[in-house]
């Protein structure tokens, strides 16, 4: 149960209930690893609410695979077989978006990223998912492949009750301004400082 | 795949492989929510490796329930039925530790906490799990119910390949010193600042 204390009563004309159920735009940014891990942890809670989970990884390589993918796919199967939790879709740019006729180009990542965002925008309009994880989505924004203004507009105007969680370094200021919750994980101490390389089960 | 660069080659007599597979002691601390969420996200990766996951929540109330609990229990069932991933155990102090004959006392939390730690210590000795999540474990340390020195000793001397993830505010310095990885999630912006209360699927 949440322990947080509300420090201010807002003057926004909403009831507490309306405010409580406001869908959130969450940004996990900062230089540390762990941003995506935290986002997927948050999506676990949404799954348990029976919400549809849509994960969109803006990664270049088809080989990129984190342990969370298998775990969420298993949870999607649990939902299909027993009705527990919510449905799960997991899409990756590098392997070619599953809905796309184009193979992941491995050459024109900008076009792939634009195509991914166009699909997400359609889904937001159609209220397709309860939780969207746009993993590593700050990079195509940073590199100018996708318009930040367009993203902020689409997110701000999204209908219904759709939570959106965006991860990646260097989130643009306009995105941070539009977000309800911005988290940054900072490292106090990390094994790579001592020359340890990443290991399975921990880093992926 | 991990992108981290190793900046230092350590002079510890270990091979890269040995160092890579060193079991980690991870502490998620700081005042923000999201510590447990990040820890459970990390445990998802361990589950996918087929490791046994043991969660021990040092919470006072039997009613405390986060969405992750149902999700992990579902993953445990997936493992039992299909062999995918690893087994999952989820124990809570407030409801009376499942292995204990005593009911959760709701009156003597110190005794309950001590009992929980004694069991974890036995399991570490027996190499029972691949990943331990000791959720909210810093509080019984902070309140002096459990000896920090004893915990650090047991963790430092734990045999085999057992990752331990500890969450909670105000982690004692001796625990931070012993840890391989210490993470702190900081808030840049949070909806509770605007008077929004916690909501299901997000905060629990």
UniProtKB/TrEMBL annotation, chains A, B:
InterPro entries: CblAdoTrfase_CobA, P-loop_NTPase. This is Cob(I)alamin adenosyltransferase. It comes from Pseudonocardia parietis. It comes from the Bacteria. Its EC number is 2.5.1.17. One of its GO terms (molecular function) is corrinoid adenosyltransferase activity. Keywords: Transferase. The keyword Transferase applies. Residues 1-20 are annotated as: Disordered. PANTHER family: CORRINOID ADENOSYLTRANSFERASE. The lineage of its organism: Bacteria, Bacillati, Actinomycetota, Actinomycetes, Pseudonocardiales.
């Amino acid at each position: 149960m949440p322990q947080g204390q509300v420090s201010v009563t807002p003057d926004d004309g909403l009831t507490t209930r309306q405010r409580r159920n406001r869908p959130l735009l969450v940004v996990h940014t900062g230089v540390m690893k762990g941003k995506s891990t935290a986002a997927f942890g948050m999506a676990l809670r949404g799954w348990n609410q029976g919400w549809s989970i849509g994960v969109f990884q803006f990664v270049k390589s088809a080989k990129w695979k984190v342990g969370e993918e298998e775990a969420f796919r298993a949870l999607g199967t649990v939902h299909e077989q027993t009705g527990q939790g919510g449905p799960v879709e997991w899409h990756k740019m590098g392997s070619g978006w599953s809905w796309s006729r184009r193979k992941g180009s491995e050459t024109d990542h900008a076009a792939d990223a634009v195509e991914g965002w166009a699909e997400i925008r359609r889904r937001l309009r159609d209220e397709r998912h309860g939780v969207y994880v746009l993993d590593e989505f700050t990079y195509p924004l940073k590199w100018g492949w996708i318009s930040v203004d367009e993203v902020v507009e689409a997110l701000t105007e999204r209908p219904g009750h759709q939570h959106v969680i965006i991860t990646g370094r260097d989130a643009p200021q306009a995105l941070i301004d539009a977000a309800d919750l911005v988290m940054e994980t900072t490292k106090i101490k990390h094994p790579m400082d001592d020359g340890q390389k990443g290991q399975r089960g921990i880093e992926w």
